Amino acid sequence: MNRAEREAYLREYSILKAQGKPFFPYAVAKDSLMAVVVMIVIILMSLILGAELGPKADPTTTTYTPRPEWYYYYLFEVLRVIKPPELTPLATIGVPTICMILLFLLPFYDRNPERRPERRPVATVAGIVTIFAIGYLTYMGAEAGSPNEIELETPERIEAQGGEVLASFEAGRIVTAQSGCLACHKIGSNGGTIGPDLTDVGERLPAQAIARTLQNPTAPMPSYDSLQANQPEQFEALVDFLSLLREDSE
Amino acid sequence: MPKLKLPKPPVPDALVPRAKRPGTTGKTRPLDVAKESGISAIDWVDERTSLAGAARWMMFRKIPKGTNWFYTLGSATLFAFLSQTVTGVFLAMYYIPDTAGGAYESVRYITNEVFLGEFVRGMHKWGSSVMIILVMLHMARTFFFGAYKYPRELNWVIGVVLLILTYVMGFTGYLLPFDQRSYWATVVGVNINGTGPLVGPYLNDFMRAGPDFTQSTLARFYSIHMMLVPGILAALIGAHLYLVAKMGTTAPPWMKPEKKGDVDREGA
Ligand code: HEM
Q1: pLDDT band at A145 (very low <50, low <70, confident <90, very high)
Q2: Counting CB atoms within 10 angstroms of each CB, which of A6, A141, B18, B183 has the fewest?
């Protein structure tokens, strides 16, 4: 906006303002009505949805669902869109930071004096695309199945071995399901895509390597060191289960 | 100093106080005394604070022609913030930031034992979602109306800070009930921050108050959630509103002034 445009704006604005109504009582009435609506919505949500309290936090077990509040889903989902691990910092911090800076500086790079949405198509389209992107990513985050269900048939080769192997496979399946790995990893047909698919991890990594990853992971994966320290049998079941997963597991 | 011209209250003609006709002495009746006492109480405060000018400046300023319901989203956000403040104060009366079980126990106590406890906790919990939605809608309104342009750039920048702080409130508050969900979501959230370049690891250590998740972490989240961020939010909302009153709210972008010869320029 150059100087003439600014002055023209201020002149027109002062006339529009002079032709308006006083803040009190006209705007105050509308604002108050809106406040009543907000109050009613909050009260109804509280009455209908309540305030649940899950099981107590326990850093030594891993029976958890690392799920943020829904309004963080879309930030979390960026991780799914940008997959290669070497780009993880970009997804977790880079993209949100860039968006934040773009938001801060908006009045400084959008110098177009026009204000009507239909006459500044670039800004309007960018705004609408942003809204849809946030909406879509939030929806994806909400849709990602419960991270506590493993949909995976016991492979035949393990059925065939029976006995101890089968028992440890089933035990490990339960621990893994409870541990919320599926929030980030796909095992069988269910699970997230933030981390690598684990359906055939036994083929890629030996048991020790899996154990090492669990105790000393790369962020954002949480460390399961305390599980190993406090419940070594469970930890072992987890590792055994993963190391038994092969290509044929489905 | 030149005297500031302040807008007058929009009182209907019939109610504007008029001086008595000269010559009518009449008794002062109790009703008149009651009327006078309100005015004199305000005068008493104003004589000692000079706040009446500020109140007139804020309340009786004109809002431009065409101002519609979209313009209530900002004050609705403010209202949600106030609701969070009030319900939050009540929750803080019972909450104990203790990782050894006290935190979870105190929230369980609020939910199950305290009179209307679950209701107030529910209002605080869902109020946060409502506030986020309102702040987003308000931002969308100012974006599509081009309200961030000259001369309101600074108010947009303050607004972005308000948005980020509102998100910080959501993040720090989520940990406090200290159930499995909130604990592990926060562990992952803190880890995600740690992947940031350069500052990531430091930010991580700051948030956890050390390399591990401990009692200090919860205490830190609690004090950030209930003192630091709300304080900054309140101050910045004050600045935001001051700028709104100072600059005036925008007219809807498609609004054109009526072409009348003698427009009343007062209060413009
Ligand atoms: C705690 C959060 C916030 C509160 C309580 C708040 C409150 C308000 C209020 C009461 C107004 C008066 C006009 C209206 O209601 O539309 C306003 C105007 C404005 N707000 Fe906010 N706001 C908040 C966050 C934001 C955010 C996140 C942005 C954008 C990034 C923003 C940008 C603006 C702008 C540019 C105006 C001027 C609009 C105009 O003149 O038409 N605000 N705000």
Answers
A1: low
A2: B18
In this structure, what CATH number is given to the domain that contains residue B101?
A: 1.20.810.10
Whether residue B268 has pLDDT greater than 60: no
Kindly report the number of other CB atoms within 10 A of residue B161's CB atom: 15
Residue count of chain B, please give it.
268
Per-residue model confidence (pLDDT) at position A66: 67
CA-closest candidate to residue A249, choices A168, A181, A185, A188: A188
CB < 8 Å from A in window 8-67 of B: 9-10, 58-67
**Residue B1 has what pLDDT?**
47
Residues 110-169 of A with CB under 8 A from B: 110, 113-117, 120, 123-124, 127, 131
Say how many C-beta atoms besides its own lie within 10 A of residue A156's C-beta. 9
CA B130 to centroid of ligand 1, rounded, Å:
16
Distance of CA B165 to the CA centre of its chain: 12
What is the pLDDT at residue B240? 98
Asked if residue B240 lies in contact with residue B154, where contact means CB atoms within 8 angstroms, the answer is no
B73 in ligand 1 pocket by Cβ < 6 Å? yes
Interchain pair A27, B60: CB under 8 A: no
A18 and B62 within 8 Å at the Cβ level: the answer is yes
Local structure of A151: helix, strand or coil: strand
Q: Kindly identify which residue of chain A lies nearest to residue B125, measuring between CA atoms.
A: A51
The structural domain count of chain B equals 1
CB pairs under 8 A between A and B: 272
pTM comes to 0.82
In this structure, the number of other CB atoms found within 10 A of the CB of residue A6 comes to 14
Would you state the structure tokens that stand for residue A14, as one six-digit string?
């002062």
The answer for B 102-121 residues in CB contact with A (under 8 A) is: 104, 107-108, 111, 118-121
Q: Is residue B78 part of a domain?
A: yes
Tell me the residue range of the domain where B231 lies.
68-247
